[in-house]
Amino acid sequence: MKTNIAVAAALATVMTLGVADAVEAASKKKEKCYGISPAGQNDCGNLAGTHSCAGQSTVDNDIGEWRLVPGGTCKDLGGYSRKEAKEIFDKMQAKKNG
């Protein structure tokens, strides 16, 4: 009987730690990161305004598409802030149209 109680207590401790880690990870700040989304894996609308829904990107790493990433990791992933992406996008559009 004591063994069952000890095993149950150990299991409860492990499960509690796992839940605490998940809650902590979920509460960390996220940021939009442009230019890193594989096709079909963007999180929402794009800079061009051609769609407004997640999963509608058609090109890998499109500068106008974004995903939410853990705060502070966008640069490490090779991505851009909205401001940087908008500048690059605008230059690309000007070159394409001009």
Describe the structure.
- The chain contains two helices and two strands; from the N terminus they run H-E-E-H.
- With 98 residues, it is mainly α.
- A two-stranded antiparallel sheet has the order 1-2.
- The mean pLDDT is 85.
Summarize this structure as a short list of keywords or feature phrases.
98 residues, two-stranded antiparallel ribbon, 2 strands
Low-confidence stretches: none
What spatial form do the alpha-carbon principal axes imply?
A: elongated
Report how far apart the termini are: 81 Å
> What integer is the average pLDDT?
85
Share of helical residues? 40-55%
Biggest sheet architecture: 2 strands, antiparallel
Structural class computed from helices and strand pairing = mainly alpha
Assembly type: single chain
What's the number of extended β-strand segments?
2
Radius of gyration: 21 Å
Count of helical regions: 2
Strands ordered across the widest β-sheet: 1-2
Strand content: 5-15%
Summarize the helix and strand pattern as letters: HEEH
